[in-house]
C-alpha cells in the first residue's frame, strides 16, 4: 500500500510542470471529507454518506457494497488518491494560523494590564471559521465542501477581515485599561497610546502579509495538484460506472 501511495505521489510531482503550464483548473469538493488511518468518510451535514474502510471496503449509507476484483482495485485507487492530496492541503491551510492567532493575542494583551475579553471572543470566531473549512487532529483530517481554486479568497478576504475585526475590536478594552492607568497616574498615557497605535499598525501589516503568503501557498498547491485531482475525478467516474449509486455523492467536480 505504501509503495502504491508513493507511486501516486511521484506521478503528481511529475505532472506538476504541466499543471503550472496551464491555467489553474476550477476544482470543487462537493462534499466534506474525514480521513483517518483506516477510514475515509464522505459526509454531508455531519452524516456519513460514503465510507471506505482500509482502502478496500465500500459502504453507501452504512450498507456494504460487494465488489469484484476490478471494483476493489478502483476503490483502492480512489481512496489512495484522496489520501495523497487532501491531508496536505489541510496541513497547509492550518499550519501557522493558530500560532499566528496566539501571537496576536499575546501582543495585544501586552499593551494592557487587563485581559481583552473582546479579543478572545473575536479570535474564537476566527478559529471557528477556519475549522469550518479545515480541521486536523492527532488522528484525522477534515475538509469541508468548497472550491479549491478559491482558497486564496477565504484567507485574504474572510479570515483577514475577521482577524482585523478581532484586533481593532479589542481597542476599546485596551483604551479603558489605559484610562484606568491614567487615573492612577501609572505611566505616561500619551506614550502608551502612541505605542499602541504603532503596534496595531504593525500587527495589521503582518497579518496581511502572513495571510497573503498563506493564500499564495495554497493557490500554488491547488494548481500543483490540478492534474492529480483530474485523475482522481476520472477514477471517481470509473467507480461510479461500477457502482451507479455513487453518482448521487459526486465528490470531485472539475469546472475548467
TrEMBL record:
<protein>
    <submittedName>
        <fullName>DUF2884 family protein</fullName>
    </submittedName>
</protein>
<dbReference type="Pfam" id="PF11101">
    <property type="entry name" value="DUF2884"/>
</dbReference>
<dbReference type="InterPro" id="IPR021307">
    <property type="entry name" value="DUF2884"/>
</dbReference>
<keyword id="KW-0732">Signal</keyword>
<feature type="signal peptide">
    <location>
        <begin position="1"/>
        <end position="21"/>
    </location>
</feature>
